[in-house]
Amino acid sequence: MKIFNLTLVAASIALSPQVFADDFKFYGRLDYSITNSDTGTATHKGKQGTIIENNFSRVGIKGKTALSEDWSLFYKVEVGVNGASQANGSNPFSSRPTFLGLKHESIGAIAAGRIDPVFKMSKGFADAFDNYSLKHDRLMPGDKRWGDSIEYKSPKWNKLQMGVSYLIEDNHYSATDPRRDNGNYQLAVTYGDKFFKSGNTYLAAAYSDGIEDIKAYRLVGHVKFGQLKFGTIIQHSELQNPNKPAFESREGEGYIVNATYKLDNLLLKAQYGSDNSGTGKIAHRVYDALGDSAMYVPEVSQWAVGAEYFMSKSFRFHTEIGQFDVKQYSDFDDSIISVGVRYDF
After folding, report:
1. Distances from the Cα of 284 to the Cα of 42, 118, 210, 217, 262, angstroms
2. Contact 190, 207 (CB under 8 A)
3. Residue 46 exposure: Cα atoms within 13 Å on the Cβ side
4. Which residue of 18, 30, 242, 287 shows the fewest CB atoms closer than 10 Å?
5. Number of structural domains found in the chain
Protein backbone atom coordinates (compact mmCIF):
# COMPACT_ATOMS: atom_id res chain seq x y z
CA MET A 1 0.00 0.00 0.00
CA LYS A 2 2.86 2.35 0.84
CA ILE A 3 4.43 1.74 -2.58
CA PHE A 4 1.05 2.35 -4.23
CA ASN A 5 0.62 5.65 -2.38
CA LEU A 6 4.12 6.78 -3.35
CA THR A 7 3.30 5.96 -6.96
CA LEU A 8 0.18 8.13 -6.83
CA VAL A 9 2.15 11.02 -5.35
CA ALA A 10 4.83 10.73 -8.04
CA ALA A 11 2.18 10.63 -10.76
CA SER A 12 0.39 13.68 -9.41
CA ILE A 13 3.65 15.63 -9.35
CA ALA A 14 4.53 14.54 -12.89
CA LEU A 15 1.12 15.61 -14.17
CA SER A 16 0.92 18.89 -12.29
CA PRO A 17 0.07 22.09 -14.23
CA GLN A 18 3.45 23.56 -13.31
CA VAL A 19 5.23 20.84 -15.30
CA PHE A 20 2.94 21.25 -18.29
CA ALA A 21 3.48 25.01 -18.23
CA ASP A 22 7.08 24.44 -19.33
CA ASP A 23 8.23 23.61 -22.86
CA PHE A 24 7.07 20.01 -22.56
CA LYS A 25 6.46 17.19 -25.05
CA PHE A 26 5.16 13.65 -24.82
CA TYR A 27 6.36 11.58 -27.77
CA GLY A 28 6.86 8.03 -28.93
CA ARG A 29 7.44 5.56 -31.72
CA LEU A 30 5.99 2.16 -32.53
CA ASP A 31 7.99 0.17 -35.07
CA TYR A 32 7.53 -3.54 -35.72
CA SER A 33 8.70 -5.84 -38.50
CA ILE A 34 7.93 -9.33 -39.67
CA THR A 35 11.43 -10.60 -40.37
CA ASN A 36 12.75 -13.82 -41.85
CA SER A 37 16.34 -14.73 -40.95
CA ASP A 38 18.29 -17.81 -42.07
CA THR A 39 20.43 -18.15 -38.92
CA GLY A 40 19.47 -15.37 -36.50
CA THR A 41 23.00 -13.96 -36.60
CA ALA A 42 21.81 -10.49 -37.60
CA THR A 43 18.43 -10.15 -35.85
CA HIS A 44 18.09 -7.99 -32.75
CA LYS A 45 17.65 -10.92 -30.35
CA GLY A 46 19.58 -13.53 -32.33
CA LYS A 47 16.46 -15.49 -33.31
CA GLN A 48 16.11 -17.27 -36.66
CA GLY A 49 13.13 -18.12 -38.82
CA THR A 50 10.13 -15.85 -39.22
CA ILE A 51 9.78 -13.59 -36.21
CA ILE A 52 8.25 -10.28 -35.12
CA GLU A 53 10.98 -7.75 -34.35
CA ASN A 54 10.60 -4.68 -32.19
CA ASN A 55 12.70 -1.95 -33.79
CA PHE A 56 13.36 0.07 -30.62
CA SER A 57 9.81 1.26 -30.00
CA ARG A 58 9.70 3.82 -27.22
CA VAL A 59 7.70 6.46 -25.34
CA GLY A 60 9.09 9.46 -23.53
CA ILE A 61 8.76 12.91 -22.07
CA LYS A 62 11.20 15.70 -22.80
CA GLY A 63 11.27 19.39 -22.11
CA LYS A 64 13.12 22.47 -20.97
CA THR A 65 12.58 25.27 -18.48
CA ALA A 66 14.10 28.75 -18.51
CA LEU A 67 15.94 29.48 -15.25
CA SER A 68 17.25 32.92 -16.20
CA GLU A 69 18.05 34.92 -19.32
CA ASP A 70 21.03 32.67 -20.15
CA TRP A 71 20.43 29.45 -18.21
CA SER A 72 17.88 26.73 -18.84
CA LEU A 73 17.17 23.25 -17.52
CA PHE A 74 16.44 20.37 -19.89
CA TYR A 75 15.43 16.77 -19.33
CA LYS A 76 14.34 13.54 -20.96
CA VAL A 77 12.68 10.45 -19.50
CA GLU A 78 12.32 7.67 -22.09
CA VAL A 79 11.61 3.92 -21.91
CA GLY A 80 11.59 1.22 -24.54
CA VAL A 81 8.30 -0.62 -25.05
CA ASN A 82 8.27 -4.11 -26.48
CA GLY A 83 4.94 -5.46 -27.64
CA ALA A 84 6.83 -8.35 -29.25
CA SER A 85 7.83 -9.74 -25.82
CA GLN A 86 6.60 -13.26 -25.19
CA ALA A 87 3.98 -13.83 -22.51
CA ASN A 88 6.42 -15.69 -20.25
CA GLY A 89 7.16 -12.90 -17.79
CA SER A 90 9.77 -11.08 -19.88
CA ASN A 91 9.85 -7.35 -19.16
CA PRO A 92 7.98 -5.32 -21.81
CA PHE A 93 9.95 -2.19 -20.77
CA SER A 94 13.64 -1.34 -21.13
CA SER A 95 15.90 1.56 -20.22
CA ARG A 96 16.53 4.30 -22.74
CA PRO A 97 17.88 7.88 -22.46
CA THR A 98 16.96 9.41 -19.10
CA PHE A 99 18.88 12.49 -18.00
CA LEU A 100 18.80 15.97 -16.52
CA GLY A 101 20.96 18.86 -17.72
CA LEU A 102 21.76 22.55 -17.63
CA LYS A 103 22.43 24.75 -20.66
CA HIS A 104 24.04 28.17 -20.99
CA GLU A 105 23.70 29.98 -24.31
CA SER A 106 27.40 30.87 -24.57
CA ILE A 107 29.03 28.12 -22.46
CA GLY A 108 27.24 24.97 -23.64
CA ALA A 109 25.23 22.16 -22.04
CA ILE A 110 26.07 19.49 -19.47
CA ALA A 111 23.86 16.55 -18.54
CA ALA A 112 24.00 13.47 -16.31
CA GLY A 113 22.15 10.15 -16.39
CA ARG A 114 21.67 7.47 -19.06
CA ILE A 115 22.76 9.21 -22.26
CA ASP A 116 23.55 8.22 -25.84
CA PRO A 117 27.31 8.97 -25.89
CA VAL A 118 28.89 11.30 -28.42
CA PHE A 119 30.73 8.53 -30.31
CA LYS A 120 27.45 6.75 -30.99
CA MET A 121 25.57 9.92 -31.90
CA SER A 122 28.30 11.15 -34.27
CA LYS A 123 26.76 8.77 -36.85
CA GLY A 124 23.89 11.20 -37.42
CA PHE A 125 21.67 9.57 -40.06
CA ALA A 126 24.55 8.27 -42.18
CA ASP A 127 23.33 4.67 -41.76
CA ALA A 128 20.42 4.17 -44.15
CA PHE A 129 19.28 1.06 -42.24
CA ASP A 130 19.73 2.23 -38.66
CA ASN A 131 17.30 0.62 -36.15
CA TYR A 132 16.82 -2.46 -38.33
CA SER A 133 18.58 -5.84 -38.57
CA LEU A 134 20.79 -4.56 -41.39
CA LYS A 135 22.28 -1.68 -39.36
CA HIS A 136 25.97 -0.87 -39.06
CA ASP A 137 26.51 -2.27 -35.55
CA ARG A 138 26.37 -5.79 -37.00
CA LEU A 139 29.74 -4.89 -38.54
CA MET A 140 31.36 -2.44 -36.10
CA PRO A 141 30.88 -1.50 -32.43
CA GLY A 142 30.15 1.81 -30.74
CA ASP A 143 26.35 1.90 -30.74
CA LYS A 144 25.59 1.22 -27.07
CA ARG A 145 24.09 3.53 -24.46
CA TRP A 146 25.31 3.76 -20.87
CA GLY A 147 24.06 4.88 -17.50
CA ASP A 148 26.26 6.70 -14.97
CA SER A 149 27.22 9.11 -17.74
CA ILE A 150 28.13 12.78 -17.92
CA GLU A 151 28.00 14.60 -21.25
CA TYR A 152 29.09 18.06 -22.32
CA LYS A 153 28.26 19.72 -25.64
CA SER A 154 29.64 23.09 -26.65
CA PRO A 155 27.67 25.82 -28.40
CA LYS A 156 27.93 25.74 -32.19
CA TRP A 157 30.63 27.89 -33.76
CA ASN A 158 29.96 28.35 -37.48
CA LYS A 159 28.28 24.89 -37.62
CA LEU A 160 31.10 23.26 -35.56
CA GLN A 161 30.30 21.61 -32.25
CA MET A 162 32.37 19.61 -29.77
CA GLY A 163 31.05 16.89 -27.45
CA VAL A 164 32.55 14.89 -24.58
CA SER A 165 31.10 11.81 -22.85
CA TYR A 166 32.49 10.50 -19.56
CA LEU A 167 31.45 7.21 -17.98
CA ILE A 168 31.66 7.08 -14.17
CA GLU A 169 33.46 3.87 -13.17
CA ASP A 170 31.84 3.42 -9.77
CA ASN A 171 30.21 0.04 -10.30
CA HIS A 172 31.15 -1.19 -13.76
CA TYR A 173 34.25 -3.28 -12.98
CA SER A 174 35.57 -5.05 -9.91
CA ALA A 175 38.84 -3.95 -8.30
CA THR A 176 40.71 -6.86 -9.95
CA ASP A 177 39.18 -6.56 -13.42
CA PRO A 178 41.92 -5.50 -15.88
CA ARG A 179 39.39 -3.37 -17.75
CA ARG A 180 39.57 -0.82 -14.94
CA ASP A 181 42.76 0.38 -16.64
CA ASN A 182 40.90 1.15 -19.87
CA GLY A 183 39.75 4.66 -20.69
CA ASN A 184 36.19 5.73 -20.02
CA TYR A 185 35.57 8.75 -22.25
CA GLN A 186 34.62 9.74 -25.78
CA LEU A 187 35.24 12.83 -27.89
CA ALA A 188 33.43 14.05 -31.00
CA VAL A 189 33.48 17.02 -33.34
CA THR A 190 30.59 17.59 -35.74
CA TYR A 191 30.04 20.01 -38.60
CA GLY A 192 26.63 20.90 -39.93
CA ASP A 193 23.18 19.61 -39.12
CA LYS A 194 22.29 15.91 -39.29
CA PHE A 195 18.71 16.91 -40.23
CA PHE A 196 19.99 19.09 -43.13
CA LYS A 197 17.95 22.06 -41.87
CA SER A 198 20.90 24.47 -42.02
CA GLY A 199 22.82 23.03 -44.96
CA ASN A 200 23.38 19.99 -47.14
CA THR A 201 26.49 18.58 -45.44
CA TYR A 202 27.01 16.74 -42.17
CA LEU A 203 30.52 15.65 -41.12
CA ALA A 204 31.83 14.14 -37.89
CA ALA A 205 34.98 12.74 -36.31
CA ALA A 206 34.89 10.81 -33.03
CA TYR A 207 37.13 8.86 -30.67
CA SER A 208 36.22 6.29 -28.01
CA ASP A 209 38.71 5.27 -25.32
CA GLY A 210 37.63 2.11 -23.49
CA ILE A 211 33.85 2.55 -23.48
CA GLU A 212 32.16 -0.62 -24.79
CA ASP A 213 35.55 -2.35 -24.25
CA ILE A 214 36.95 -0.79 -27.43
CA LYS A 215 39.31 1.89 -28.58
CA ALA A 216 37.96 3.31 -31.82
CA TYR A 217 38.23 6.17 -34.31
CA ARG A 218 35.26 7.12 -36.50
CA LEU A 219 34.70 9.39 -39.51
CA VAL A 220 31.21 10.18 -40.76
CA GLY A 221 30.01 11.90 -43.92
CA HIS A 222 26.45 12.58 -45.08
CA VAL A 223 25.63 14.88 -47.99
CA LYS A 224 22.46 15.86 -49.80
CA PHE A 225 21.93 16.74 -53.47
CA GLY A 226 18.25 17.51 -53.92
CA GLN A 227 16.40 14.24 -53.26
CA LEU A 228 19.62 12.19 -53.37
CA LYS A 229 21.74 11.53 -50.26
CA PHE A 230 25.06 9.74 -49.81
CA GLY A 231 26.29 8.50 -46.45
CA THR A 232 29.35 6.75 -45.05
CA ILE A 233 30.80 5.66 -41.71
CA ILE A 234 34.47 4.64 -41.58
CA GLN A 235 35.87 3.19 -38.37
CA HIS A 236 39.01 1.65 -36.85
CA SER A 237 38.21 -0.56 -33.85
CA GLU A 238 40.40 -2.36 -31.33
CA LEU A 239 39.10 -4.66 -28.58
CA GLN A 240 40.34 -3.71 -25.10
CA ASN A 241 38.86 -6.59 -23.07
CA PRO A 242 41.45 -9.28 -22.21
CA ASN A 243 38.65 -11.53 -20.93
CA LYS A 244 37.36 -12.06 -24.49
CA PRO A 245 38.67 -14.78 -26.85
CA ALA A 246 41.51 -13.69 -29.21
CA PHE A 247 41.27 -10.10 -27.92
CA GLU A 248 44.83 -9.23 -29.05
CA SER A 249 43.93 -10.08 -32.68
CA ARG A 250 40.59 -8.30 -32.79
CA GLU A 251 41.56 -5.03 -34.41
CA GLY A 252 40.86 -3.63 -37.85
CA GLU A 253 38.79 -1.39 -40.10
CA GLY A 254 35.16 -1.24 -41.07
CA TYR A 255 32.92 0.96 -43.20
CA ILE A 256 29.50 1.38 -44.73
CA VAL A 257 28.56 3.36 -47.84
CA ASN A 258 25.01 4.04 -48.95
CA ALA A 259 22.67 6.10 -51.07
CA THR A 260 19.02 7.08 -50.66
CA TYR A 261 16.66 8.70 -53.14
CA LYS A 262 13.27 10.27 -52.34
CA LEU A 263 10.63 9.98 -55.07
CA ASP A 264 7.41 11.63 -53.90
CA ASN A 265 6.29 9.47 -50.93
CA LEU A 266 8.74 6.67 -51.71
CA LEU A 267 12.28 6.49 -50.29
CA LEU A 268 14.66 4.03 -51.98
CA LYS A 269 17.92 3.02 -50.31
CA ALA A 270 20.95 0.77 -50.83
CA GLN A 271 23.97 0.04 -48.66
CA TYR A 272 27.21 -1.95 -48.63
CA GLY A 273 29.59 -2.48 -45.73
CA SER A 274 32.51 -4.52 -44.46
CA ASP A 275 34.54 -4.97 -41.26
CA ASN A 276 37.58 -7.08 -40.35
CA SER A 277 38.08 -6.01 -36.72
CA GLY A 278 36.11 -8.85 -35.11
CA THR A 279 34.41 -6.38 -32.76
CA GLY A 280 30.89 -5.95 -34.16
CA LYS A 281 27.71 -7.74 -33.06
CA ILE A 282 27.98 -10.59 -35.57
CA ALA A 283 31.65 -11.21 -34.69
CA HIS A 284 30.72 -11.29 -30.99
CA ARG A 285 28.08 -13.92 -31.76
CA VAL A 286 30.71 -16.01 -33.53
CA TYR A 287 33.02 -15.85 -30.50
CA ASP A 288 30.14 -16.43 -28.06
CA ALA A 289 29.34 -19.66 -29.90
CA LEU A 290 32.87 -20.90 -30.67
CA GLY A 291 35.03 -19.30 -27.96
CA ASP A 292 38.75 -19.98 -28.27
CA SER A 293 38.10 -22.54 -31.04
CA ALA A 294 37.52 -19.61 -33.43
CA MET A 295 40.93 -19.66 -35.10
CA TYR A 296 40.45 -16.63 -37.37
CA VAL A 297 39.09 -13.14 -36.81
CA PRO A 298 35.72 -13.01 -38.61
CA GLU A 299 35.56 -10.75 -41.66
CA VAL A 300 31.96 -9.64 -42.13
CA SER A 301 30.52 -7.99 -45.23
CA GLN A 302 27.00 -6.79 -45.97
CA TRP A 303 24.73 -5.64 -48.76
CA ALA A 304 21.22 -4.29 -48.31
CA VAL A 305 18.43 -2.67 -50.32
CA GLY A 306 15.17 -1.29 -49.01
CA ALA A 307 12.32 1.14 -49.35
CA GLU A 308 10.03 3.26 -47.19
CA TYR A 309 6.60 4.44 -48.23
CA PHE A 310 5.15 7.40 -46.31
CA MET A 311 1.37 7.34 -45.90
CA SER A 312 1.72 10.52 -43.83
CA LYS A 313 4.43 12.42 -42.01
CA SER A 314 3.98 10.12 -39.01
CA PHE A 315 3.19 6.72 -40.57
CA ARG A 316 5.24 4.66 -43.00
CA PHE A 317 5.67 1.15 -44.36
CA HIS A 318 9.23 -0.12 -44.73
CA THR A 319 10.96 -3.15 -46.17
CA GLU A 320 14.57 -4.37 -46.07
CA ILE A 321 16.36 -7.15 -47.93
CA GLY A 322 20.01 -7.97 -47.39
CA GLN A 323 22.71 -10.46 -46.58
CA PHE A 324 25.70 -10.80 -44.27
CA ASP A 325 28.66 -12.90 -45.33
CA VAL A 326 30.98 -14.09 -42.54
CA LYS A 327 34.26 -15.12 -44.08
CA GLN A 328 35.76 -18.30 -42.52
CA TYR A 329 32.48 -19.03 -40.68
CA SER A 330 29.76 -19.64 -43.27
CA ASP A 331 27.43 -21.13 -40.63
CA PHE A 332 26.96 -17.56 -39.38
CA ASP A 333 26.01 -16.09 -42.78
CA ASP A 334 22.56 -14.57 -42.62
CA SER A 335 19.95 -13.40 -45.13
CA ILE A 336 17.32 -10.92 -43.99
CA ILE A 337 13.90 -10.20 -45.49
CA SER A 338 11.79 -7.79 -43.47
CA VAL A 339 8.49 -5.91 -43.84
CA GLY A 340 7.35 -3.48 -41.17
CA VAL A 341 5.38 -0.43 -40.10
CA ARG A 342 6.41 2.64 -38.11
CA TYR A 343 4.30 5.29 -36.41
CA ASP A 344 5.76 8.38 -34.72
CA PHE A 345 3.77 10.57 -32.37
Report:
1. 11, 23, 17, 19, 35
2. no
3. 9
4. 18
5. 1
